[in-house]
Every structure is written in C-alpha cells, then in structure tokens.
Amino acid sequence: MIDLNDTLGQVATAHPASTLVFLRHRLDFCCGGGQKLGEACRRIGLDPDAVVAEIAAEGSSSAPERWDTRPLPDLIDFILTRYHEPLRLDLPALLAAARRVERVHARKGSCPHGLASLLEQLDAEIRQHLAKEEQVLFPALRAGSGGASVHMPVRVIMQEHDDHGASLRRLRELATDFSPPPEACATWRALYAGLEKLESELMEHIHLENNVLFPRALNALD
C-alpha cells in the first residue's frame, strides 16, 4: 500500500510502474526523490489520491523489475546495458539533429536557438560522468566496497545528477515542452520526440542510482 508520506523515490523503488505516472505528471522522482508524495502532488495542483489510483492501475497492467531486491552487480549490469550504452549512441544523434534544425530554421521565431549548444555541453558532461562510474565507482561496488569508503564518490556522482536534472529542465524549456510548432519539419519533430525519450530515460537512470543503488551501497559494511 502506498502512503502519501512516502517519498517519491521510495514509491518509485517499491512500485516501479509508478515512474510512468510520475513522468506523465512531471513529478521529479530522481533528483527530487526525497519529496513526500502527498506534498509533491499538492504543490503542483494534483490530487494525491488520484495519483495513487493511477499508480495502482499502471501496476496492474505491467510489472516492471524491482531492483531493490536484486544483487547489486545485477543492478549495475542493468544500468550499464539499459542506460549507459544507449546514452552514448543517442546523444550524438540528437546533437546532430539539433544543429541541423537550428541551421535550416534559423530565421523562424520558433527555432530552438541554443539547443544544440546545450546538448553539446550535456553530451560532454555525461560522457565524463559515465566514465567516473564505470572506471571508479562501479568497480568498487562490485568488489564489495561500501559505507564510508564510497561516500565521497557517491556524493560527487549525486551532485552531477543534480546538474543533469537542471540541464533536462533547460532542454524542456528550450524545446517548448517538446511540443513542435506547426511548421516543424520531420527532423524537428523527431528531435523533440528523441529529447522527451532522453528525459524519461535519464530520470529513470538517475532514480535507480540515487534511490536504489547508492543507498544500498552506503548502508553496506566496509
């Protein structure tokens, strides 16, 4: 049963299907995963009980994996294959599309000026971020390190997650909530669809690390 005093991160962990509902209503369950469900809903004018009912309905039609009960190495493998590898492929394609849209439609008032520059910055930051996880933090966790010994690298990674969250908010702003204007060409429409997919997957990615992987690692004995 979902308690309105549970945090968004706790609900997303125990009821993975809830992430679809949270994404639909733009409830931040990754970087903002510490917010209580009831308070977060009321803050943006949602009926908390209605949101809980949506989660129950979503959960009855799908049963996503609960990663809080699986071994940490399994969760790390999932993060690498489901999120790290696709990010390295998707971001360059989105960047190329953004550059093309800004070049071809530069004179239109609806052109998302600055989008390519932001994506270029995000791509560079995420590549460095993934390297830190893959070369430092994840090997340490696989080797059984935990508690105080991983506190500092986890803190650094979580700060970078906050930065990624800010970049996602700016992307949504520049891309007018990922709603292409009537005059948008096929590339423009595909770009916005790709950005919306990037947002949802990066939020799910950050949630699994912030709210599942890292708490378990920090609570482990050295």
Task: Write up what this structure looks like.
This protein has 222 residues and is mostly helical. It contains eight helices and no strands. It is globular and about 55 Å long. The two termini are 33 Å apart.
How many strand units?
A: 0
Q: Pick out the low-confidence regions.
A: none
- SSE topology string: HHHHHHHH
CA-based shape: globular
Largest sheet: none
Q: How far apart, in Å, are the first and last alpha carbons?
A: 33 Å
Portion of residues in beta strands equals under 5%
Q: Domains counted in the coordinates: how many?
A: 2
* Overall mean confidence score, pLDDT: 94
| Rg result | 18 Å
How helical, in percent, are the residues?
Answer: 55-70%
Class computed from helices, strands and strand pairing: mainly alpha
Helices, by number, come to 8
Describe the structure concisely:
The chain is mainly alpha-helical and about 220 residues long. It folds into two domains: about 10-60, no CATH class; about 70-220. About 70% of the residues lie in helices and about 0% in strands.
Please render the helix and strand layout as text.
Blueprint: H1 8-14, H2 18-25, H3 37-43, H4 48-61, H5 72-104, H6 115-142, H7 151-174, H8 186-219
